[in-house]
Each structure stands twice: as structure tokens, then as C-alpha cells.
Amino acid sequence: MNIAVACGGTGGHVFPGLATAHELLRRGHRVTLWVTGRDTEQAALKDWDGPVVQVAARGLPSGFSLDALRAVWYLARAVRHCRVHMRRELPQVLLAMGSYASVGPCGAARWLGVPIVLHEANVIPGRAVRLFAGGAAAVAAGFEETRYHLPRGNITVVGMPLREELTEASASLPPRAEGVQSPFRLLVMGGSMGAHRLNDVMVETLGRLKKNNAPFYVTHLTGRQDEAAVREGYRAAGVSAEVIAFTKYMAPLYHAADLAICRAGASTCAELAFFGLPALFVPYPRAAMDHQTANARALEKHGAADVVDESALSPAWLVAYLAQTMNHPERLQRMRAAAKHEGVRNGTRALAALVESCATTP
Asked: Can you give the residue range of the structural domain that contains 58?
């Protein structure tokens, strides 16, 4: 079949789309990627040697403004351009991974009668998914809770397609020893760009924990801006730490950790569940529609994570939380079991199969 995959925008859309595109290629289909051409997409696309269509687009600001009118004009132009490209070799189905980058291809597909499969990674659907869900052949969800936010959507829960290098690396890791390690291993992540507030609180918190003679080791992904300051903060406090600005080789870090402290983006939530790693989520407070809090609460509800608002995060609170967690390893084991139960191991295959089932016959 001829299949189009619209996965432009951020890494949270590009990587799951690419993983599914590769799976569809393995199944013998011809796959064309539809992206926006942004610099942030290029690193992810370096291993893709299939056809690519670039259609410029921009996000839609909230509220009514001159910028919003310009964005609407750009999106309308993107739909027209996509229709011209799509008509030349009509796909039998379009998979759209959400974000403003999906609006052009989805608008063109609807105009031309091409079935649309939408993937929503977060609990709360984004505007592009909500816009096209009603007429889509299917909406593939990462969370069961998405059903409550799209009551009219034809929803199938498939989980999150994970990066291939992550799933492949996990297969070569040795079995993880049961129980909590000594020293206790923390993994701190603020996303690819880091999280300044989280970085600051962690340095002070672990400095205090060190004075209490608690045995622990931390791997801290800081983002490039805070890397040097965090490394120096830990050095001055005598904290044993591995400080990294960013790495894509996450499988060994997930495998080794006893607890993650991090934001609650959809990819992070899915990867933690895949590895069965308990988490303390500190959702990004300015995320659109507060979707990170909804993601975090979904895993908290199933016993796989704890959640604290950034406004309530302080070194004193976090020292007490970590002391309690380290002193009650049995609770952490229950969280690990719950996380493994929630983790989806075949999200890529499930989404690819759904796309195949929605395609028009040649």
C-alpha cells in the first residue's frame, strides 16, 4: 500500500511517527513522510532514506490576535499545498501524529477522501487531533483516559510507538536484580532542553541528603544551559553524580535506576512504563492544557508514580520524600510492578496494524 505519515514538529511527534513508518516499511508498504522542514526534525530524519514531503506550517497561538490570523493563513496555505502534492500520488491512508504539522496533510486528506488515522500521545488531545477526530477513520491513543476527552472519536488504545534504538537496546540488557540497590540510584531528567527549576532544587536537595549520610548515586540530565552549574553544585556538595547535558542512549540509564524524577511528557511516561521504572513526576506547569499533569495523574492512578506540582517542590519536601522512599523499598517495588503492568511493549506494531486496517483497498 501507499501510506503517508505526517510526523513533523517536535521529537515527541517525529520519533513515534518514524518508528511506525519503519514498521510499515518492514511490512512491505511504500511510506512517505510529511514534515515541516524545521531544523529540529533533521537529526531525527537522518536515517530515513524514503520519500519526504516538506510543507511549511506554524502553530496556532491561543486567543484572537494578529499572530493568530497569520497562523490561520499559513495553515490554510499548508492545506492547499498538501492537496497539490497528495493528489499526484494518492495515499490509501494517512497516519497523522498530531501537532500543527498534521493540519495541512489532514486537511488535504479529508478534502481528497483519504482515510485518516490520528495518534494522540497525551491524555488530553491537542487541537489538531480534536479538529479532525470526528471525521477520522480511527484515533489511536496512548492512554486509556483519552476516551473521556474525545467521546465522539473512534478510539483504539495502542500505547506509544517507542524509538527503535531504545527498544533494541533494551533487548540486550541483562536481567535487572530484584529490589532496591545500594547505593540508591536516582535518574533526574528535565527533557531535552532541561528544566531549570528542577535542576536547582535537585542540587540543593541532594546536597542536604548527602549531609544525612544517605547512600545514593544520581545521573542527572540537565540540558545544555545548566550542565556546568549542576556539575559544579554536586562537586561542591560532595555528591556522587554523573551529569550529562543530553543523551539519546537512555536504555542503560532507565535499566539501572531505582527512581526517576522528571517531567511528564508522553514519550517520557511511555519509556518509563516500558522499563518499569517508578517516577516522581514534576509536570511542566505551562504545558498546553496542562497535559503533563493529566499524563502524570494517569500513571499515579495506577500506582506507578507519584506527582508533585512544581509550585510545591522544595528541597525540604524532596529530602523528606526521598528519605521515605529509600526507607520503604517495598513500596518502590509495588510501583515498579505497576509501571511494568502499564507499559506497552508493542505500541509500534499495534499502530501499524491499525493503519493497515483503515486503508482503502487499491
From this structure: 2-160+345-358
**Same domain membership, residue 155 and residue 174:** no
Please give the tally of structural domains in the chain: 2
Question: 81: closest CA among 62, 59, 101, 60?
Answer: 101
Q: In angstroms, rounded to a whole number, what is the distance separating the alpha carbons of residues 261 and 208?
A: 17
Closest CA to 19 of 361, 355, 362: 355
Confidence of residue 53 (pLDDT cuts 50, 70, 90): very high
**314 plus 253 within the same structural domain:** yes
Residue in this structure with the C-alpha cell 528544566, named with its chain if needed: 195
Whole-structure pTM value: 0.92
DSSP string, 113-180: T--EEEEE-SSSPPHHHHHHGGG-SEEEESSGGGGGT-TTS-EEE---PPPHHHHHHHHTSPPPPSS-
Over residues 227-278, the pLDDT tens digits come to: 999 999 999 999 999 999 989 899 999 999 999 999 999 999 999 999 999 9
pLDDT at 192: 58
- Give the dihedral of Cα atoms 193, 243, 270, 160; nearest 10 deg: 60
CATH number, domain of 187, equals 3.40.50.2000
Locate cell 483519552: which residue?
Answer: 146
Cell numbers for 330:
517495598
pLDDT value for 8: 86
